[in-house]
DNA sequence: TTATATTTTTAGACTAATCTAAAAATATAA
DNA sequence: TTATATTTTTAGATTAGTCTAAAAATATAA
């Protein structure tokens, strides 16, 4: 049974929520993510359960079945491949790609996905540092930490962002921070958990709202 | 007002019909093209007329307004650009691209269209020889004729196809006919209008059903 | 020019996805 | 452990797009 665009968006939302907050996902959490009312979500959960894409227990919540998880990952794979295409081939900047990828991820053609992947040289990460699932749905996760958990004096490499809104990405651009940028932790302020970060030669003060949205790895 | 995918498909259908059969298009002609019942078409014509995308007179037919024509051409432009992308960059063959382009043509992002066009080197024709409208909606039409109207003894170049179904394109592949192939008219059979065509060193007999679906130009 | 055939529209119903308002279930707190 | 708050579901509507069946308009043919 073919999935509709809307169903795919629900599955993706549920996948992302369960990844952060655990397997069973609440109606309200989904409603917030897909920007719909809880009553609409209830209807959709029944439909997705009928299609064996998730298990749903009234008043308890929903959890993706293997079939549902596979479907969600396929959409995410396409989303991230298209983002790479837009940045690498079409001169989009990393803050412009999400909206378009949100549309392109729903194009149905296994050959297209396969050939796009090959054309891009089988990229491992999207422009925001998120891993690209392979054709079998396997996601290679590297051990990254949040900048907020970094230690003073050490040097790190930026490997990803959590918030990939245009506003946040433009903030990073302004301070010349991108995937691969070296960051040195100069100081941590105990009072508000803000940090002083040295990028190239400049030192920037970053609030907790910033440092909890940047992924880094050591060295 | 944003157009839906369905509206765009109707506009495209009406554009193509009016291009062949004249400005005013009948409900039944549209119904056949979009594979829907006449009653559904009537409903849609009312909606498109409300949106000023076409003029509609009950029982008389519909004709695109300038706004509707522009919208249709933009979809056709995207369709053909994507077809070029699939063939030139992703190793699709010319008989595999239409279905996918049918989906991709509805992606809404002016920047995407613009950058894709540039990435492809501003192509003038799609893989089936159809002209690609420019960003302003201008379509450069070259003077091409049907193979069925060719003269015996003359040499022509294949510049396009009318039927771009997979079956027909595979027939052409089998006989090594593509855009740019030289064709020599050896003989015309008056009885059934079939033709003997020399391609490279081989001579092939083609029925009228074939020769009325191939566009050529002299030389 | 009247009868018949064809085309087109209307009427009413269906599905997918959504909403608001009210009811029911569950969680929390006195 | 009973009352209150929160979450979730149900009931009933709405919109887009579609359908079938019937009615109305137009075209064709005797
Ligand atoms: Mn994205
Ligand atoms: Mn999406
Ligand atoms: Mn096509
Ligand atoms: Mn289409």
TrEMBL record, chains A, B:
Enumerate the spans annotated as HTH dtxR-type domain.
1-65
Q: Which Pfam families match?
A: Fe_dep_repr_C, Fe_dep_repress, FeoA
| Keyword terms, alphabetized | Activator, Cytoplasm, DNA-binding, Manganese, Repressor, Transcription, Transcription regulation
For whether the record's keyword set contains tRNA-binding, the answer is no
**Record-linked SUPFAM superfamilies:** Iron-dependent repressor protein, dimerization domain (SSF47979), Winged helix' DNA-binding domain (SSF46785)
* Compartment(s) where it occurs, according to its Swiss-Prot or TrEMBL record: Cytoplasm
Look up keyword GTP-binding and say if it applies: no
Q: How does it assemble?
A: Homodimer.
Q: What does this protein do?
A: In the presence of manganese, represses expression of mntH and mntS. Up-regulates expression of mntP.
The family this protein is said to belong to: Belongs to the DtxR/MntR family.
Its protein name is Transcriptional regulator MntR
Supply the gene name. sirR
């Amino acid at each position: 049974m073919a999935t509709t665009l809307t169903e795919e968006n629900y599955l993706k939302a549920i996948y992302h929520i369960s990844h952060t907050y655990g397997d069973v996902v609440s109606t309200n959490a989904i409603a917030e993510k897909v920007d719909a009312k809880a009553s609409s979500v209830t209807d959709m959960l029944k439909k997705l359960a009928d299609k064996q894409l998730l298990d749903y227990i009234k008043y308890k919540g929903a959890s993706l079945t293997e079939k549902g998880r596979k479907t969600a990952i396929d959409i995410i794979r396409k989303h991230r491949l298209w983002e790479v295409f837009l940045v690498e081939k079409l001169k989009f900047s990393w803050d412009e790609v999400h909206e378009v990828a949100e549309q392109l991820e729903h194009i149905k053609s296994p050959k297209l996905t396969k050939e796009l992947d090959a054309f891009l040289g089988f990229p491992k990460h999207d422009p925001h540092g998120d891993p690209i699932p392979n054709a079998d749905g396997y996601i290679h996760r590297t051990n990254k930490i949040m900048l907020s958990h970094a230690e003073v004096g050490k040097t790190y490499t930026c490997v990803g962002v959590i918030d990939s809104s245009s506003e946040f990405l433009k903030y990073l651009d302004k301070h010349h921070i991108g995937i691969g940028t070296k960051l040195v932790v100069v100081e941590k302020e105990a009072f508000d958990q803000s940090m002083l970060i040295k990028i190239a030669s400049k030192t920037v003060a970053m609030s907790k709202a910033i440092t909890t949205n940047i992924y880094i790895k050591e060295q």
